[in-house]
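Quick start: read one record
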Amino acid sequence: MHDAITRVATLGLEVNAIRLLENTFKYTPHLELDQHFDTKHELIDYLKSSPLEIIIISEKFIKNNDLSDFIQELKDINNSIRLIFLTEKGDFNTLFPYFRAGASGYILENSRIDIILNTIEIVSKGGIFITEQLLKQIIKILDEKFFIFNDLKLTKREEEVVNLFCEGSTHREIAKKLFISPETVRTHLRNFHSKSKDSKGGKILFETHKSEKIKKYLK
């Protein structure tokens, strides 16, 4: 038995997705579909005066370059709010930015009602929802990464620099995060380049991240 109502809002969802949620919530008296928002400013204004537990956000609405800032803005208003993204794809590369920015789960477009409910239930209880398929992808990437860094015999600092670089950080951003100079960052990347030239681990790293930024260091 549920003692409290979990209030859920949506942002940027299309009409069909909203109707699916409305039909889904008919079977769950402890879940309340509160409001539908078309702009983040409307949502933020509402959130300042009305409590919400969960927001379901369309991936088509959010651009990756402002995702972290937007989620932080929501968390500054209500730190306990939980975020679920409605997305077309469920692969690691698509979902990683959402989880990294603070998402608690995701729903694939055209999901069955029972899967949608399961996701919302898990997130409403403070959990994080990921599918078994995504978990296997994460484990595979972690295994490859472990092999890569052992294969290359990188120092701890070189590993930190390469990790941040693969995630898209600039030389200056890496230097600021690690409290070193940009030139030291370049030195660590040159060392990585030297160690990875003929390394199987270096080739796997390139295939895993598929980053143009890292490509020049693997030639």
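The CA atoms of residues 104 and 127 lie 7 Å apart.
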